[in-house]
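#struct-help
A.M.: can someone run this one for me? Single chain, 380 residues.
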Amino acid sequence: MTEFDLKTDCRHVRWDRPCAPHKRRGKVCASCDEYDPIRHRVLMVKLAATGDVLRTTAFLRAIHATWPQAKVTWLTRRSAVGLFDGNPLVDEVLATDDAVTAARLATETFDVVLCPDADPDAAVLAAMAHAKERRGYVRDAQGRIVPLNEGAAAWLAMGLSDTQKRANRETYQNLVADVLGLDRALVTEPILEPSGLDRAAARAFVQGLGAGGTLVGLNTGAGGRWAYKVWTKEHQQTFVRLCLDAGCGVLLLGGPEEVNRHRELLAQNQGRAVFDGGNHNSYGRFASLVEQCRVVVTSDSLCVHVAAARKVPAVVLFGPTSAAEIELYGRGTKVVPEALDCLCCYLPRCDRVPHCQALIEPARVWAAVQPWLAAANSPA
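D.P.: on it. Structure tokens below:
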């Protein structure tokens, strides 16, 4: 093969090693029937929390429809890189803390850079990248965030106004489609693809529990930014008992911050069908465990978007964040405290007693769970 035989615009090209079609099947460029030319190079700049990054993968199908045969590069924080393992619509992921990332942004040119957030860090990276077109936000020489269309200006204004945030009734997917100039109708569920090994391991784990019957997932945490996203320990304990008394098993789902919470819930229900899904799962393993549940109960957190990606019904508890913005794709129920005028406050903490999550009674959540259990048990 000479250098002139190499189809340098092919998606399969790996500059430091043979491409997969050549390595696995002996294909060469001149006669390869797997040639897949890249027509557009798209950079998505989305940092933020992992749940927020995951829900933004809902735009990937719209991106590919808008820019056919696109090579999609996603720039995010190191903590979110694992979300893209197995994602067929993202070709590569760059981490913000990598020196090579900075070098690539300084030397490569993209057809379009998408920045859906008025996050100063994301916006400056979007401005730094060489691009023929930019959509969403950039940061200018004075450090100001610049919205690049009317949808971006509206989303920026909403983020700066508690009044507008509370009044909003549009989903994040609709709002950000307008920010990026994408067709709302093309936006679908988030994408999180567990490996076959992760799914098999989750199935084996659940089978090994010997629980029998129906398994309800209880996501016990919500990250550390908003303290009152998390349902109270007492309410979680009562909800677990309601599930058990109805003959359901409960799978505890959480991260490293919920280790003690899981220990307490297990200790209070020794000998009964309460099981710990673990607190140090990869994203793929966590998604596979969620997939084993008939329904999950969760706060507004990563678990909501994992459930959406895996098409598992979710009963979602809201307080300080916007219930309207969360899209459940017709597979879930939103539970919001009643008669509370300070909802959607986005305060990290507050001094209200009882606070919003304490006002969500376990019996109400259990009532919201039951229709989804009935639907799962009904004949197709």
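A.M.: thanks! Residues 362-377 form the longest helix (16 residues).
D.P.: also worth noting: The two ends are 55 Å apart (CA to CA).
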